[in-house]
Amino acid sequence: MFGLLNRWLRYLRKMSEDCYTLVMLRHGESEWTKRNLFCGWYDSKLSENGIKEAHVAGQILRDEGFQFDHVFTSQLSRAQDTVQIILQELGQSPEVTKSWRLNERHYGDLTGYNKLQMANKYGLEQVQIWRRSYDVLPPPMTKDHKYYQDIITNPNFKIDGPNEDQFPHTESLKETIMRVLPYWNENIATEIKQGKKVLVVTHGTSLRGLVKHIEQLSDAEIMKLNIPTAIPFVYKLDANLTPTKPRQFLCDEETVSKAMEKVASISGYEEKQ
Ligand SMILES: O=C(O)[C@H](O)COP(=O)(O)O
């Protein structure tokens, strides 16, 4: 009887121990983020500042002694270029896997428009609903949209999909999660459970989807989260990939909260038409 109880207690203790470490980060600032434009599936490059941010992220990971076996990223250059810079700083060459399923959410018809100008046109409240609500879709991108051809013909989106039926014309966080989660379960979670040291480098909304799932946040809680560019954050996970501690950003609290405020706000740059 006692033997059985002891074994059961040992099992429970083991389940709540840190088994795995997962590191995630959002790519460095892109040219379009700098210009305060809705970007989504448009393949905007890293800005000069974004390149610097990626170097700093790599240096932080190097100084903290992280070694990675497998990096997962999206099919968008701003994330892939961030990965290359980080690996250069780390002096490591782990396997790198890219998938459209980790792309930023598709921002529909808003793509390419200035966030502040959209707030002036539709009201700040509506723009914030499009940006942060769980399931309100931005208006869809139609074929006559200025950036439709650029996006639909991106050769990177022909490598592992999406096929025609899967190609989005707009996405909320809910639709983003619906394509990110199967990829997490089938590819990323399986690697972590095999003991591989995994780094995930993606985008604001695809990361919010992953954070929502990992931390089991409610629809209301995730609306309040803004993920800063290029600040790595770490999870300690148990055998079921449940966090044993709160997510930890590898940066001082003040810098993280300022960077989060910057992401939340759209009061910055307004383009001259
Ligand atoms: O696609 C974009 O415009 C950005 O990556 C995220 O922008 P947001 O913070 O307005 O969602």
TrEMBL record:
InterPro entries: His_Pase_superF_clade-1 (IPR013078), His_PPase_superfam (IPR029033), Phosphogly_mut1 (IPR005952). CDD domains: HP_PGM_like (cd07067). SMART domains: PGAM. Gene3D superfamilies: Phosphoglycerate mutase-like. It is an enzyme of class 5 (isomerase). It comes from the Eukaryota. Pfam families: His_Phos_1 (PF00300). Keywords: Glycolysis, Isomerase. The active site is at H27 (tele-phosphohistidine intermediate), E104 (proton donor/acceptor). Its EC number is 5.4.2.11. The record marks H203 as: Transition state stabilizer. One of its GO terms (molecular function) is phosphatase activity. It catalyses: (2R)-2-phosphoglycerate = (2R)-3-phosphoglycerate. Substrate binds at R78, E104, R105, H106, Y107, K115, R131, R132. GO terms for biological process: glycolytic process. NCBIfam families: pgm_1 (TIGR01258), PRK14115.1 (NF010713). Belongs to the phosphoglycerate mutase family. BPG-dependent PGAM subfamily. This is phosphoglycerate mutase (2,3-diphosphoglycerate-dependent). It comes from Diaphorina citri. The lineage of its organism: Eukaryota, Metazoa, Ecdysozoa, Arthropoda, Hexapoda. The gene is LOC103524649.
